[in-house]
């Protein structure tokens, strides 16, 4: 297995054969690398669904989707995924699973079909973004809590929902989380993204400046990697130390990603 850093603060290319990866022999090393680098890219691996599932299981516990699916189709095409509409929320920076106490550890995305236009995936390292703040700024953020809601993330792509639609989104949860996640490892990361609605106890204007300002910082060039997909690429991101988003693509673009997820191992903690 050969590994090469993409940028100083995010991303690593991993070159290895399917057989080597499926053997599980590098699983411990890959898990460590994922935590350190945020995103691992395995170019043109062309895993089948079965291989993707088997590889996922070498890295941890596979997390099924809400309706029990083991693999999941990420597409805007409603004929392929009835919940495609919600996936438009993925066009904005987010962390997966902020509605739960224990977010998923990681997601694996395998490129089955590409879009001619759009459909890149951006990632940013929320550990590095925190680490590079000034000590003064870190002290200001310490102890702050943020209200997250699913409906907030949906307003980004559909700002004028019907009341019925808003209530449907509202039924999908909300959560109060620390702004700075103190991990069991001792490292700290920022918890932000499109579900982050307001800083608890703060004036709306100050809260918006803080959340948008930090997102702007965290997604800035030093912490950011934009993946331009080739067919068969596999990308894994550490969902506990990154945010991600897709650049917009249309329902008829043909873009189809197959996703598996790893069960969370650490709750959000302050
Ligand atoms: C996801 C996601 C982004 C993409 O699968 O959780 O946000 O580029 N995907 O498809
Ligand atoms: Mn996502």
Give the termini separation.
Answer: 36 Å
- Which cofactors or ions or other ligands sit in this model? N-oxalylglycine, manganese (II) ion
Strand order of the largest sheet: 1-2-3-13-5-15-4
Quote the beta fraction. Answer: 25-35%
Give the integer mean of the pLDDT values: 97
Q: How are the elements arranged and paired?
A:
Blueprint: E1 2-7, E2 10-15, H1 18-22, H2 27-37, E3 39-42, H3 49-59, E4 72-74, H4 84-87, E5 106-113, E6 121-125, H5 126-131, H6 135-141, E7 145-149, H7 150-155, H8 163-170, E8 174-178, E9 180-182, E10 188-190, E11 196-199, H9 204-218, E12 224-227, E13 234-238, E14 242-246, E15 256-262
Parallel strand pairs: 2-3
Antiparallel strand pairs: 1-2, 3-13, 4-15, 5-13, 5-15, 6-12, 6-14, 7-8, 7-11, 9-10
The chain binds N-oxalylglycine (OGA) and manganese (II) ion.
Manganese (II) ion (MN) is lined by residues 90, 94, 96, 244.
What features would you highlight for this structure?
alpha+beta; three-stranded antiparallel β-sheet; 9 helices; binds manganese (II) ion
Overview of this structure, please?
- By secondary structure, the chain is α+β, with helices and mostly antiparallel strands.
- The chain is 27% helix and 27% strand.
- The chain contains nine helices and 15 strands.
- It has helices spanning 18-22, 27-37, 49-59, 84-87, 126-131, 135-141, 150-155, 163-170, 204-218, and strands spanning 2-7, 10-15, 39-42, 72-74, 106-113, 121-125, 145-149, 174-178, 180-182, 188-190, 196-199, 224-227, 234-238, 242-246, 256-262.
- The strands form four sheets. The chain has a seven-stranded mixed sheet with strand order 1-2-3-13-5-15-4, with helices on one face.
- A hairpin with a 5-residue loop joins strand 9 (180-182) and strand 10 (188-190).
- The longest helix has 15 residues, at 204-218.
- It is globular, with a radius of gyration of 18 Å.
- The N and C termini lie far apart (36 Å).
């Amino acid at each position: 297995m050969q590994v090469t850093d993409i940028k100083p603060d995010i991303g690593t290319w991993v070159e290895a054969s399917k057989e080597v990866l499926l053997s599980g022999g590098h699983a411990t090393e890959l898990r460590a690398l994922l935590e350190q680098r945020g995103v691992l890219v395995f170019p043109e691996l062309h895993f089948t669904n079965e291989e993707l599932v088997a590889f996922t299981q070498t890295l941890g516990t596979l997390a099924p989707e809400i309706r029990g699916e083991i693999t999941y189709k990420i597409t805007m095409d409603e004929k392929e995924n009835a919940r495609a509409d919600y996936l438009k929320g993925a066009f904005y920076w987010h962390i997966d699973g902020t509605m739960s106490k224990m977010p998923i550890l990681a997601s694996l995305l395998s490129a089955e079909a590409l879009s001619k236009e759009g459909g890149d995936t951006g990632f940013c390292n929320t550990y590095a973004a925190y680490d590079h703040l000034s000590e003064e700024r870190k002290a200001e953020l310490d102890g702050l809590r943020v209200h997250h809601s699913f409906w907030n993330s949906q307003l980004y792509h559909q700002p004028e929902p019907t009341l019925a639609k808003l209530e449907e989104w509202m039924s999908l949860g909300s959560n109060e989380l620390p702004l700075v996640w103190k991990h069991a490892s001792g490292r700290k990361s920022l918890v932000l993204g499109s579900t982050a609605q307001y800083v608890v106890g703060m004036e709306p204007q100050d809260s918006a400046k803080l959340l948008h300002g930090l997102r702007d910082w965290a997604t800035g060039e030093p912490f950011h990697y934009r993946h331009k997909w080739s067919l068969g690429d596999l990308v894994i991101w550490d969902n506990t130390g990154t945010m991600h988003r897709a650049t917009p693509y249309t329902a008829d673009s043909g873009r189809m990603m197959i996703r598996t997820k790893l069960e969370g191992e650490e709750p959000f903690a302050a």
